[in-house]
Amino acid sequence: MAESARQKRITGRVMHEFKHGELKSGPGGKGGPVKSGKQAIAIALEEAGDSKYESEGRNKRNLRRTEKKEAEGKTGQQEREGKSRVGGSGKRESTRSMGGKDARKTTARGEKAARARAHSADGHTRDELYAQAQRQHIAGRSKMTKRQLENALGVH
After folding, report:
1. Can you tell me the distance from the alpha carbon of 17 to that of 23, in angstroms, rounded to the nearest whole number?
2. Burial bucket for residue 14 (CB in 10 Å: 0-12, 13-18, 19+)
3. How many CB atoms lie within 10 A of CB 47?
4. What is the DSSP letter of 18?
5. Cα 44 from Cα 85, distance rounded (Å)
6. Cβ(48)–Cβ(3) under 8 Å?
């Protein structure tokens, strides 16, 4: 089975974890660090949902599980390097300046960056635009970005 671009990225990330000693084996990483390159490749293919030893359904499930883990910032690489994806809904994001509402301490730079992102030239925040879209019963509004809401409402 040919790997998709997303699967290649996942495989690359897992091999990066192996190279830096961050890749762990077993459930919850309780088996300790992976020392064998062949085992690292097997784990990479399994996480990417591209293992020839798994059924199609199992491969799909493995890929979804990996994507969820990456979205929540729970991969070995993200935990070690202190990164978690910006915009992970309701999950801790690493710093205030990256837009994380759950960060413990606000920094002046982070607050300034958040203000700059929230307000465009006309001063509407995404929440204000969403409320307006709600009043106008615009379909699909909950998944729209600020720019998409502006376009849907004709506000610029």
Report:
1. 5
2. buried
3. 24
4. H
5. 20
6. yes
